[in-house]
Amino acid sequence: MKLPFTKMQAYGNDYIYINAIENEVVNPGLLSKKISDRHFGVGSDGLVLICASDVCDFRMRIFNPDGTEAEMCGNALRSTSKYVYDKGLTQKEQFTVETIGGIKRITLTVRDGVAQDIRADIGKPILEAAKIPVDTQKERFLEEPIQAGEKEFLVSSLSWGNPHTVTFVDNVDDVEIETYGPLLENHFRFPQRTNVTFAQVVDDGHIRIREWERGTGETLGCGTGCCTAVVIGALLGKCGRNVEVTQPGGVLKVEQQEDGTVFMQGPSHFVFEGVYEYEA
Q: Which of 88, 133, 220, 256 has its CB surrounded by the most CB atoms within 10 Å?
């Protein structure tokens, strides 16, 4: 099969985007595995299909590098929103996107006909430990000590559809992330594995993070990792609800409203376009 694709980036997350409204995609899980190898072929953090929706302006399906379908990724959501506007699939600057994790609201800042900045409502995080899931009898998994190799981390967990954990450290530059990321990702306390955010509080309105993404490794940026750090940080009194989060890929603004709804805001950009040929 031949599929036209667009590679896009949102602060470090590279995804392959395919207009599945106009193109039939056979076995997207297998396709995601084929295009997600960072050393061969196209290379990406996963696959995003932009589909028609009966309840929203668009439907987004996202597949991880291991071929499993994910509920939602904040960075992928932002890039999807830029794609549909800049490619002329919509002329709206406010619209909705259907995901497995729920309906998401998007607001674009458009300059000279190009979506420059995307404000995405990624909903309310799940805090119940049983739903994340975490191997515990406690209602919430907040600052639980976990032994990973020679170190113990205080780990907190929530979910945006995929499990996310955060551990606050003195300095993220000192974290041996390739050692401790996999140890926490695959720890027995997380039966379905977890994304791992290492976070450093600079002050009430500024956090630095490094993110170990489940099934991928360290990423330059992760929108939901940023939101995880802010939600848990505010819950523990470490920071406020309006925070700039610095990660290797850039700065993302995160806002948690009083009702718990979280918004992320930042840019996305096109990397390149091409045609991918594969056997279904």
A: 256
**Does residue 71 contact residue 63 with C-beta atoms inside 8 Å?**
no
CA 270 from centre of chain:
17
Question: What pLDDT digit, counting tens, does each position of 192-211 carry?
Answer: 999 999 999 999 999 999 99
Of the residues 51, 56, 73, 239, only one is catalytic, namely: 73
Residue 222 appears among annotated catalytic residues: yes
Residue 102 bridge partners (DSSP): 99
**pLDDT tens for residues 134-175?**
999 999 999 999 999 999 999 999 998 788 999 999 999 999
Q: In 87-222, which residue ranges form alpha helices assigned H by DSSP?
A: 177-185
Contact indicator for 208, 170 with CB cutoff of 8 Å: no
What is the rounded distance in angstroms from the CA atom of residue 270 to the CA atom of residue 144? 40
Token code pair at residue 9: 């980036």
Tokens of 6: 């667009």
pTM exceeds 0.90 for this model:
no
